[in-house]
Amino acid sequence: MKSYSIKELLSSNLSLQEVTVKGWVKTFRSNRFIALNDGSTINNIQCVVNFENFDEALLKKVSTGAALEISGTLVESQGRGQSVEIQVNKLEVLGVSDPDTYPIQPKKHSLEFLREKAHLRVRTNTFAAVMRVRSVLSFAVHRYFQNNGFYNVHTPIITGSDAEGAGEMFRVSTLNQKKPPLNEAGEIDFKQDFFGKETNLTVSGQLEAETYAMALGKVYTFGPTFRAENSNTSRHLAEFWMIEPEVAFNDLDANMDLAEDFIKDVINYILENCAEDLKFLEQRLLDEEKSKPQAERSDMDLIEKLKFVSENNFKRVSYTEAIDILKSCTPNKKKKFKYIIDEWGADLQSEHERFLVEKHFKCPVILFDYPAKIKAFYMRLNDDGKTVRAMDILFPGIGEIVGGSQREERLDVLLDKIKELGIDEEELWWYLDLRKFGTAVHSGFGLGFERLVLFATGMGNIRDVIPFPRTPQNAEF
Ligand code: ATP
Ligand code: MG
Ligand code: MG
Ligand code: MG
């Protein structure tokens, strides 16, 4: 007898055949109906037990969460909303699940409660749907780049430079903590450590990816990155996955085109391949919104929102234009901001970004040409001498989803900048080599994978779109 996944069974035409399935009990009603799920789909298969044919002690062991192997006849279902069901002939309980202590009950649990059960929460419909969408999105990322002539580069996780200079790095220590070697000044002597220098977990694979773009042309990294973000927001994790393409000979306009095309492609891919999970997640949001006042409800449903993004152009706006818009807000509107922006050169806060996207333009926005002072050292200086070829993509409900730029390809300009910022030139000798040997215009961006999953699933907190979130004071699992 062949084993089938529940997804296969529900979409098959195997009526009247004998089948075997394995999965976990979602619910067991009236000592007769087992809703079984094996993770392959959001839908359960109904298994109908004729209890007179089964030992009472055996049926007692069938409870929510238990693992079962069921064999029976697949028949057309009389029940609503399901095509087929199984008339059970044989039932084996592979693993019991004590109903008194099993934390995941059929009732609705709060997301906060489930965060404390990160090892079990994927057994709920919501998390199973989110994690399936996450997996398909991850495939879509590789699919897009591989189909478009990019090579995947595995940039290092352990790095020897703090190139971003943001001071948010996790130090890698291989020192004997009890007795670290000290130098004459009494400080830890990293020269005696495993790597012979201080090392950190990567905050971005960009600089290393640039080196590969300058030989392979079009490359991307998609790996974990680490930032000791000392704040608790619903958009930041200490460990997150970043997608970073880097392309030789691309200027900022080509970079914006790439980012927009990429996002639309992967969103389309999940619309085509995750229809059932997205429908479920959309319904979840609708149920949640019922309790909100009309004004706070979103004007588009999840799938409509995804289609809107995949079918419409993103609005491209220079930083200077954005500041003019924010400056010209009525005093009343301005009062709603925590920080009032009245000057060119100020860094936008997420409240301003979201205002531009959600209230002003009502579509994804690409902001470009930022003041050099608020951006990283490696960005291409414009001829005005005060702005750089940077871009951020801002999304409704999310804020910043992409940060990217054209990179400074001119050695002298880059060196001036490095000096101005007091960055250690020697640390970056290998990066500067790229500007000495065959330098060329190039650009790239970083897209936080979890922010993309947030948008795609309509979830509200980044902790709920990664299997085991890492945030301050939280690394339980
Ligand atoms: P933010 O302004 O939201 O803190 P950032 O400007 O510090 O982001 P970048 O250095 O531009 O971030 O990184 C590129 C992308 O990585 C961001 O656009 C975002 O999508 C994502 N990202 C950055 N920090 C985090 C984080 N702590 N957790 C999850 N995603 C992140
Ligand atoms: Mg940040
Ligand atoms: Mg930012
Ligand atoms: Mg950024």
TrEMBL record:
MF (Gene Ontology): asparagine-tRNA ligase activity; ATP binding; nucleic acid binding
Keyword set includes Cytoplasm: yes
CDD domains given in the database record: AsxRS_core, EcAsnRS_like_N
Coiled-coil portions: 271-298
Cellular compartments annotated: Cytoplasm
Entry's EC annotation: 6.1.1.22
GO cellular component term, pick one: cytoplasm
A biological process from GO: asparaginyl-tRNA aminoacylation
Main EC class the enzyme belongs to: ligase
SUPFAM superfamilies: Class II aaRS and biotin synthetases, Nucleic acid-binding proteins
Main location class: cytoplasm
The UniProt record lists the keyword Transit peptide: no
The Aminoacyl-transfer RNA synthetases class-II family profile domain, residue ranges: 131-467
Key words, A-Z: Aminoacyl-tRNA synthetase, ATP-binding, Coiled coil, Cytoplasm, Ligase, Nucleotide-binding, Protein biosynthesis
Domain of life: Bacteria
UniProt xrefs under Pfam families: tRNA-synt_2, tRNA_anti-codon
Catalysed transformations (reactions): tRNA(Asn) + L-asparagine + ATP = L-asparaginyl-tRNA(Asn) + AMP + diphosphate + H(+)
Quaternary structure and partners: Homodimer.
Family: Belongs to the class-II aminoacyl-tRNA synthetase family.
NCBIfam families, sorted: asnS, PRK03932.1
Name of the molecule in the record: Asparagine--tRNA ligase
Gene coding for it: asnS
